[in-house]
Amino acid sequence: MDRPLNNTWGVILAAGSGSRLTDASGGVRKQYLEYKGAPLFWHSARTFSRVAGVKGLVFVFPEEDVKQMEKRLRLFFKGEELGVRWKICAGGARRQDSVHCGLKELPRDCQAVLVHDSARPFVSATLITSLLDALNDGARGVIPAVAVTDTIKRVEGDVVVETPDRSQLRGVQTPQAFEVPLLMEAHERATAEGWEVTDDASMVERIASVTVVPGEQANVKITNPEDLQRLEEAKVTVPCVGWGYDVHKFGGEGDRPLVLGGVPIAGPLTIVAHSDGDVLLHALADAVLGTFGGGDIGTHFPDNDPAFAGADSSVLLKETLLMAQKAGARIVHADLTVITQVPRLAPHAKQIAKNLCRLLGLQSHQVNFKATTEEKLGFTGAKKGIKAVATVTALREL
């Protein structure tokens, strides 16, 4: 066979009954168990798609699930294009029957095949690449294996009859890689001669040599109820930062009175705004939304919606804080700056900072407020308007 092998497909076996896990998984077959928001078989598909040379995948499901799973796969590929061709077929009564069904779906020009159990969702692209490298170096069949660390006994009934030398023993994993014609020949002979095997290498060994490459300890198979713990995601608390910016121009008689951080600022200055025009709380609300990817206040509270005409910005901020809470974002710090030439905000700074703490439910050391000018530059320097920026830090469990 010509090398290198540039047209390799994977056969992902998801046709088993998973009887040993039925009770522990609430009746869900293990290939359909969710891990990080996707079923186990899809994790294998993702990994295979990242390997150069893998052009397509054949998914093998229980016959009664094929129609439903075809619809589901179409949705998966629509939402996350893996860049490979794919087919689906029904499996058989035994594992070897399911593999044989999958092999029949391979395109005629397919040179090599990787047979993989979907119950091994932790396989790495590095391991798959090592299998294909061995095939390209001339091997006809390649399997990953790990050293056996326990002492193995061969028993008859309750009596030990032999202790094999464990230095010569290996625990075999999937995927297993083969030249397509070789594996097809092995399966055809197995059918004709009634071979009963537990993996594809057991067939191929009878007609050709099989090469071993190092497997991975992490490439475990979900088999027993205790293995389900491996699918439980450890939650990690991570910091999330949101940044907000807002600007309003000064108005004239009849416009909104100046309010900053929920504190009325006495004087002649007014603000042109649809809501109450609190530039500081608007920037703060946008920053809160930023901590969990919540968009911006213009989306949630449009300035062309009569419902928000003259709206109290502290109420709008409260709504964004509730959104953050529902998203699992706990606000822990805020740093805010107002940029304006007028009015002088030093006399109001303590009251603004205190009200910000109240609105956010934070202590004084968690909220920092300051004001500055732009040295008479720009529109704020020309006393045409006012702007504010805010940075908010939150903690989220992911």
From TrEMBL:
Binding site for a divalent metal cation: D246, H248, H282
Essential cofactor(s): a divalent metal cation
Boundaries of every 2-C-methyl-D-erythritol 2,4-cyclodiphosphate synthase domain copy: 241-393
Region (2-C-methyl-D-erythritol 4-phosphate cytidylyltransferase): 1-239
GO biological process: isopentenyl diphosphate biosynthetic process, methylerythritol 4-phosphate pathway; terpenoid biosynthetic process
Site (described: Transition state stabilizer): R20, K30, H274, T373
Gene3D superfamilies for the chain: 2-C-methyl-D-erythritol 2,4-cyclodiphosphate synthase, Spore Coat Polysaccharide Biosynthesis Protein SpsA, Chain A
Site (Positions MEP for the nucleophilic attack): R166, K221
Pathway per the UniProt entry: Isoprenoid biosynthesis; isopentenyl diphosphate biosynthesis via DXP pathway; isopentenyl diphosphate from 1-deoxy-D-xylulose 5-phosphate: step 2/6; Isoprenoid biosynthesis; isopentenyl diphosphate biosynthesis via DXP pathway; isopentenyl diphosphate from 1-deoxy-D-xylulose 5-phosphate: step 4/6
Region (2-C-methyl-D-erythritol 2,4-cyclodiphosphate synthase) location: 240-398
Binding site for 4-CDP-2-C-methyl-D-erythritol 2-phosphate: 246-248, 274-275, 296-298, 301-305, 372-375, 379
EC number in record: 2.7.7.60, 4.6.1.12
Catalyzed reaction equations: 2-C-methyl-D-erythritol 4-phosphate + CTP + H(+) = 4-CDP-2-C-methyl-D-erythritol + diphosphate; 4-CDP-2-C-methyl-D-erythritol 2-phosphate = 2-C-methyl-D-erythritol 2,4-cyclic diphosphate + CMP
Keyword terms, alphabetized: Isoprene biosynthesis, Lyase, Metal-binding, Multifunctional enzyme, Nucleotidyltransferase, Transferase
A Pfam family recorded for this sequence: YgbB
Function description: Bifunctional enzyme that catalyzes the formation of 4-diphosphocytidyl-2-C-methyl-D-erythritol from CTP and 2-C-methyl-D-erythritol 4-phosphate (MEP) (IspD), and catalyzes the conversion of 4-diphosphocytidyl-2-C-methyl-D-erythritol 2-phosphate (CDP-ME2P) to 2-C-methyl-D-erythritol 2,4-cyclodiphosphate (ME-CPP) with a corresponding release of cytidine 5-monophosphate (CMP) (IspF).
NCBIfam families: ispD, ispF
Family: In the C-terminal section; belongs to the IspF family. In the N-terminal section; belongs to the IspD/TarI cytidylyltransferase family. IspD subfamily.
Name the UniProt record assigns to this protein: Bifunctional enzyme IspD/IspF
Protein's organism: Pseudodesulfovibrio profundus
This protein's encoding gene: ispDF
